[in-house]
Amino acid sequence: MEINDTYKTLGKRSEGLFKDKGSKFIAHAIYCTTEDQVKVELEALKKQYYDARHHCYAYILGFDKEDFRANDDGEPSGTAGKPIHGQLLSHDLTDSLIVVIRYFGGTKLGVRGLINAYKFAALDAIQNNSIITKIVKDQFDVIFEYADMNDVMRIIKEEELEIVSQDFQMTCKLRFSVRQKFSDKVEKRFQDLRKLTIAKV
Length: 201
Description:
The protein is α+β, with helices and mostly antiparallel strands. It is built from 5 helices and 11 strands. It has 2 domains: 6-134, Impact, N-terminal domain (Ribosomal Protein S5, domain 2); 136-200, Alpha-Beta Plaits, CATH 3.30.70.
């Protein structure tokens, strides 16, 4: 079974807009990799749009998409965060945050109207972005003697591994990254040398 080691995410920051009955829904789509980053972005947008009534959002983080949240920020339950989250899911995105800011126009939109507004604002922001595919990589540390340098470098070259750092003192230490689906194969090649130690970082 082949390992899936790619994921889709946002390539840049973008905005989207949806208007209905005087209400304005301004969406921001932002690349984020941690909850701390999400908090920083939310705070910044709340300051920027301090006079808005609602700052609703959804995010999905991590390669496995296990870390996610949807927030209605005072809108009726399920009418804001969920449709925003739904757009992230339907575009198969992770490491992504979408915040939709609402300025109330004086006329209530009803549950269906709200769901559509948040959905289409989020969709507009995604469509104004560029979706990119990223590759998950593993990193390994290899510790070896100078005498084994040629063997190590041959594997690095043949497997087209990316050297992250190297430290050649009394003993040699080298860190490299490798595409996840080739990890086991590359690790075994180094282990077969038997004269060095290799450990996943």
